[in-house]
Amino acid sequence: MLSIKNLRASVEGKEILKGINLEVKTGEVHAIMGPNGSGKSTLANILAGKSDYEILEGEVTFLGQDLLELSPEVRSRSGLFLSFQYPVEIPGVPMISFLKASVNEHRKFKGLAPLTAGEFLKLMRAKKDMLHLDTELTNRSVNEGFSGGEKKKNEIFQMAMLEPKLAILDETDSGLDIDALRIVAEGVNALKTPENATIIVTHYQRLLDYIIPDFVHVLHNGRIVKTGGKELAFELEEKGYDWIKNGNDQ
Amino acid sequence: MSIISEKISQVDQLVSLFEQNREVLARGSSPILNRMREVSIKRFAQTGIPDLKNEDYKYSRLKPAFENSYRQELVRESGLINLNEIFKNNIPELDAHLVFLVNGWFYSGNNPGAELPKGVVLGSLEQIANEQPDLIQNYLNRQAGLSNDPFVALNTAFAKDGFFLFVPKGVVIEKPVQIINLLSSNENLMATQRNLIVAEAASLVKLVVCDQTLTPVSYLFNSVTEVFIGQDAMVDVYSIQNYHNQSTVINSAFYRQQRNSVLNTGTFSLHGGLIRNNLKVTFSGDHSEANVNGLSFTDKKQHIDNFIIIEHASPNCLSNQIYKNILDDESTGAFSGRIHVARDAQQTNAFQRNNNVLLSDKAKMQTKPQLIIDADDVKCSHGATVGQIDEDALFFLRARGIGEKDARMMLMNAFAHEVVQKITIEPLRDRIDELIEKRLNGEIGRSHDCKDK
Ligand SMILES: Nc1ncnc2c1ncn2[C@@H]1O[C@H](COP(=O)(O)OP(=O)(O)OP(=O)(O)O)[C@@H](O)[C@H]1O
Ligand SMILES: [Mg+2]
């Protein structure tokens, strides 16, 4: 589904990603862990199409297309979803109209007719029920005045509405209380099918108790320095990143 | 019809045009109008056309516009406009009492008076000043005459017509009153319009004033409106300005509020070459409220200048100002908001905000708050921002599948929304939303530029 080959990227002249290789297949769950500043969000943002970065080398294919050639909106419509580490507040843009535009753009891309207001509301209700979201977030401006946890729940809600093929969750677990963490994790699991794939960026093994990864990668200083199964997360939790940084392995 | 030649100074030309046409100006006009002319032309001659050294006009270069030759309609010319045609010009179509004016002259198009409540007078200032001078003489030029603005003086010297609205005590006009000001000429035109609104105690009226240029010649439009708001009265005035790029507009509005009255105004400057809006509110009675808002869109070499004065002359009044501008290309804008709290105006609340979005590197905005506070028990605040479209928000929307153009539009609409939602006439709110959408899509103004002469 996603294939990243030797991806190098810089921002403001500083090289952040120094040769990333990653293969994600349909049905898989990958976790990316790694110390602060190692380049996890940079990788996620580049995949989603943020233009602040300069691609120095490498290629990325997503569902057979050259991903780096596509605009952010086409990437999204093609089935790529980024749950932002820091979801932005957009005062004055009502959540409902934003989401309706978003859903209908996706439908248009698939050659489907736009949802009517009634159909849209019904879909929203169904997804809210599915995620057990009780807070009323949809009649406000996008993320405006939302708490940290509400913003993250809102990201998962958008994911549920858009049903992406590849979801990249950038620290969707941070800032969540225990109940919210469960809601988010169960939501991600409920949306999981054999046809889609998930990349979870996290600092905590805790989330991986709920969402069992097939692979765990450790990103350090712009490179994936270690890859393993879910037990790698436990090991990291126990030993910290110094263990990797000191290069005891590999 | 008279032509201004270009040999002598612009001020002298206007003064001599006045002198040559004394009789033409006086003929048919009420003494109420005529008695103000001489002193006003003198006042204009003394001040002249302000240059950038004039503190009140330092952001707006008006001299170049006066260098053009213009004709003036000093007498009514019968050029009736097809009423069915005008709504093709992005003028919001509303369920309203509709009147229209052409080049400053009132035309009673579709007999609006028929449906108005008893006692309400809506018509030509010229005509009513002649026929019912009592309604007018205590009000006309009572506010404007105190102003030392040269364009107000010029207007008063040449004023022949405009609209007059009188709402008697306790009368509520349910439907909005829509005034359509058209500018239509085959040659460059200087138009003068003089309006007066008197809303007596406990009356209620909502006005929608739509200005529109119809032909692609240069216009210099000098309009003055005085509004008197009686005790406990509520007056809403929304103004939609849509002129083509060769238009220079000086629009001055004076509001005087008696105690316990409410004023809501919104000025939507959709398009125009150079627009200068002078707006002054004077609280002459306590416990009154004024909400004074504005929203503008400029591009190319357009210029918008909103010059606001709130005179808190009485205690316990509240004023709110929100002005927003979206500036593209090389366009420029200015906002000056002066709040004066007089010594006795205790317990004043006065708030002001000016937010601006620059869509290009070359667009410029000047913003100048000015608080002059002579009372001690006062709550005042002001704030101004000049920024760009939020790139993170733009990326967020695109990353959810919304195309760049639509995403930008959403963000600009979001910025404008705050001012639009303050409109108290719901159908107008929707119309304005549509017009903003059109404006941002480049569908307003363009039609003019390609219309043939
Ligand atoms: N727009 C930018 N301008 C300058 N530096 C940037 C920019 N974006 C990222 N960086 C730098 O790139 C490095 C990697 O940042 P990134 O956000 O990818 O780290 P991260 O692994 O997600 O960290 P965290 O765990 O704290 O979220 C950091 O040193 C950061 O300061
Ligand atoms: Mg990060």
Provide an overview of this structure.
The complex is a heterodimer of chains A (250) and B (453). Chain A is an alpha/beta fold. Helix content of chain A is 37%, strand content 28%. Chain A contains 9 helices and 12 strands. Chain A has helices spanning 40-48, 72-77, 95-109, 117-131, 148-162, 178-191, 205-210, 231-239, 242-245; strands at residues 2-11, 14-24, 29-33, 54-62, 65-66, 80-83, 90-94, 141-142, 166-170, 197-201, 215-220, 223-228. Chain A has a 6-stranded mixed sheet with strand order 6-9-10-3-11-12, with helices on both faces. Chain A has a 4-stranded antiparallel sheet with strand order 2-1-4-5, with helices on one face. In chain A, helix 4 (117-131) packs across helix 5 (148-162) and helix 5 packs parallel to helix 6 (178-191). The longest helix of chain B has 17 residues, at 404-420. Chain B is globular. The model of chain B is unreliable at 447-453 (pLDDT under 50). Chains A and B meet through helix 2, strand 7, helix 3 and strand 8 of A and helix 10 and helix 11 of B. The complex binds adenosine-5'-triphosphate and magnesium ion. The site of adenosine-5'-triphosphate has 13 residues of chain A, from helix 1.
